[in-house]
Write a structure and sequence with these properties.
15 strands; 407 residues; Aspartate Aminotransferase, domain 1; Aspartate Aminotransferase, domain 2; four-stranded antiparallel β-sheet; single chain
């Protein structure tokens, strides 16, 4: 009976989202994958598009490891050994040997004492910030931080929260300065790679500013970086923004669901911090972990990344990204260029962005348009994402489709 009353309210809210342009709409359903061949990368079949083949330019699987035969084999072998699910939360009986092996490998990869797994990077951020925030903590956050950080801060209910202008270290310092003597602890939180732009936090400068204020807060200044788009796609060996900037955060959040091609999230830090979070992070304590098979697959993906093959994939990814950016620029398009494989094509008009997405789809290219009011008016874009299992032919085809539309 209650739904009959509330459903009109919900329907009105849905209509409002659609009118504003923020509705996500109907999801595209992938029903099959065609292996790479003939000079082209993988192609995808959608449930309502018959035998049409689509090139994905909106995938976070930056190294193409989700289709890597060794990663697939590792998951298949672990499924046969452990079954398809963990069966419980970890402190009851859900911890399996692949979970511990992956945590140890991730800690070593990032040069940390320990790491812990979460069901997703979103869950990791939302899970760890509230326990780290006391009633006397100020949380200082970049203006363009991901939704998971914004919601985590809301849940944490700090003494104070402050937002500094995107990547503006002078403004960060001003926000820290104004809370000296008011808060006992400062928590500075930033994305490593900013997902809508592909740019990165100036981590060396950020940590330097925080060190200047370390002794001015009774419980110090703690840096937390979510580098979900950075690890595996950024830096000479794929260690992300920390490697690119030659600097380290106190607490690092990463994902297994992007460059590693699997599923799940993780946190790497000191042994004391990880032990504390295992006892206090509710989304760790009360949620099932990723499956043992996913952990085994992610560990294999990490081993590939941390090898000669991984370095070759990273080099290929950088080459394809440069090829795509150069082609866009020569065709007269405006881009936010950089070494990360997120390549935003700035369209700066909501209606034109929609038309360009439709044009790409009609020619077999899957791409994501980011429109007002998700971004400010004038910042509308197509967010392209280059993957290492794209081919030069794939990149050239997308460029030809874009030239046909016109800058």
């Amino acid at each position: 009976m209650a739904l009959a009353t509330i459903e009109p309210v919900l329907a009105a809210r849905l209509a409002e989202l659609e009118a504003k342009g923020t509705s996500k709409g109907v999801e595209q359903v992938i029903r099959g994958v065609k292996a790479a061949g003939g000079g082209f990368g993988p192609r995808y079949y959608l449930s309502d598009q018959g035998d049409r083949e689509f090139l994905r330019m909106n995938s976070n699987s930056y190294l193409g490891l989700s289709l890597h035969p060794e990663v697939v084999a590792a998951e298949e072998e672990a499924v046969r050994r452990y079954g398809v699910g963990p069966g419980a939360v970890r402190f009851i009986s859900g911890t399996h040997a692949p979970h511990l092996a992956l945590e140890e490998a991730l800690a070593g990869f990032h040069g940390r004492e320990a790491a812990m797994l979460f069901s997703a990077a979103y869950a990791a951020v939302v899970g760890i910030l509230p326990p780290l925030v006391s009633p006397e903590t100020v949380v200082v956050s970049d203006a363009l931080n991901h939704n998971c950080i914004i919601n985590a801060i809301r849940l944490a209910r700090p003494f104070a929260k402050a937002v500094y202008r995107h990547n503006d270290m002078d403004d960060l310092e001003a926000r820290l300065s104004e809370h000296v003597g008011k808060a006992r602890r400062a928590l500075v939180v930033s994305d490593g790679i900013f997902s809508m732009r592909g740019d990165h936090a100036p981590l060396a400068r950020l940590t330097a500013v925080c060190r200047q204020y370390e002794d001015r807060y009774q419980e110090g200044v703690v840096t937390v970086v979510d580098d979900s788009h950075g690890v595996g796609a950024f830096g000479a060996s794929g260690r992300g923004t920390e490697e690119q900037c030659a600097a380290r955060a106190d607490i690092l959040v990463g994902t297994l669901g992007k460059a590693f091609g699997v599923n799940g999230g993780y946190v790497a830090a000191s042994g004391t911090v990880i032990r504390f979070l295992r006892e206090t992070a509710p989304l760790y304590i009360y949620s099932n972990p990723i499956t043992p098979a996913e952990a085994a697959a992610a560990r294999r993906a990490l081993a590939i990344l941390d090898s000669g093959e991984g370095r070759a994939l990273l080099a290929r990814l950088r080459g394809l990204t440069s090829r795509f950016e150069a082609g866009l620029t020569s065709a007269g398009f405006e881009v936010i260029a950089g070494p990360h494989p997120i390549v935003p094509l700035l369209v700066r008009d909501t209606a034109r962005t929609g038309r360009l997405v439709d044009h790409l789809f009609a020619r077999g290219v899957l791409a994501t348009g980011i429109k007002y009011p998700v971004v400010p008016q004038g910042d509308e874009e197509i967010r392209f994402q280059v993957n290492a299992n794209h081919s030069e032919g794939d990149i050239d085809y997308v460029l030809a489709v874009l030239r046909e539309f016109g800058a």
